[in-house]
Amino acid sequence: MPVNVVTYFIRRLFAAAVLLLIVSAITFAIFFVVPQIVAGGNPDTLASRYVGRAATPETVHAIAVKLGFLDPIYVQYWNWLKGVFVGSTYDIGTGIEQCPAPCLGYSFITGQPVWPDLLDRAPVTMSLAAGAAIIWLLFGVATGVLSALRKGTVFDRAAMSVALAGVSLPIFFTGIVSLTIFSYALGWTAPGGAYTPIQDNPFRWAYSLLLPWITLAFLFSAQYARLTRAGMLETMNEDYIRTARAKGLPERTVVIKHGLRGALTPIVTIFGLDVGLLLGGAVLTESTFSLNGLGKYAIDGINNQDLPKVLGVTLIAAFFIVIANLVVDLLYAVVDPRVRT
Questions:
Q1: What is the pLDDT averaged over residues 7-16?
Q2: What is the pLDDT at residue 39?
Q3: Same domain for 86 and 202
Q4: Which residues pair with 96 in a beta bridge?
Q5: CB 296 within 8 Å of CB 286
Q6: What is the pLDDT of the chain when averaged over all its residues?
């Protein structure tokens, strides 16, 4: 492997690690520092979540001391960060709870660790994101390429009109309409709330997620179609495209190898970030189709003011977005070698 490729990889990996550290610090401040500031600097506000409403002020203050909420902010952040990597212990008065790594805290409502809940919900979100991403990438890019090659035709105008509708219509509207027509009226697809793990029955897994996949992909494929069309229209007018045609290369080679590759940079960018964002929870889609993924888990945490749940999903989403951004940067080196320098 060339030295410049290795250097580029190490540099981007280090930048991703630093960004994750910064994100974790900001997230910690939002969920642990800001509530205390809003409460006038009183750390007992957070501690009251662990003991219930019937606890006396003395009990709440004692719990705040045991949980370390009276320590300096940097000490609290270090203990919290250390818990993510090596685990932590919680002394809530009735005993000491051992939270194994990665420790993201305990739910205020159920009293259970957040991390196992995230692992239980993650397959739903990952299945939804992976299936929808494949559909919108294939259909979006293919539609954009064909529209660019047939600029001004009926197909081009019809495809861009559908793409405009896809971008404009919110997912909760298209999701409800799709459920009403294809699930409840026609019975072609599974109703909301249906999910079968892939290891139990791959066919039922795909069938239960088919409508959420298509509905979510409709929104994203519209954006990809418009972006691909614009990129192809720009690259197909470049001098190197005319040179490739003058050399007698087949039109298919000119379009795919030269034209499409030149238009891939923005596609790679948004695809990596879109997938990373969805892996952190497709909130609206999961809520519309009643899928128990990370997005719905976060909504439940917000509705119940269960901060550890929201914190866990926020960190997972940030992790996936940063990793997706790292993968995108590495793919740039493949698509365009100039970025390695």
A1: 79
A2: 64
A3: no
A4: 91
A5: yes
A6: 79
Domain containing residue 77:
3-99
Asked which of 34, 68, 99 is the last residue of a domain, the reply is: 99
- 48 φψ region: left (φ > 0), alpha (ψ -120 to 50), beta (else): alpha
Q: On the CB side of 306, how many CA atoms lie within 13 Å of its CA?
A: 21
149 and 196 co-located in one domain = yes
Q: Which residues contact 21 (CB under 8 A, 6 or more apart)?
A: none
Query: Phi first, then psi: what are they for 98, rounded to 5°?
Result: -95, 120
Q: Tell me the pLDDT band of 79, cut-offs 50, 70 and 90.
A: confident
Assess contact for 211 and 135: CB atoms under 8 A: no
Whole-number Å distance between alpha carbons of 226 and 141 = 9
Q: pLDDT digits over 259-286, tens only? A: 777 777 778 778 887 887 787 767 778 8
197 and 125 in a common domain = yes
% of the chain residues with pLDDT over 90: 0
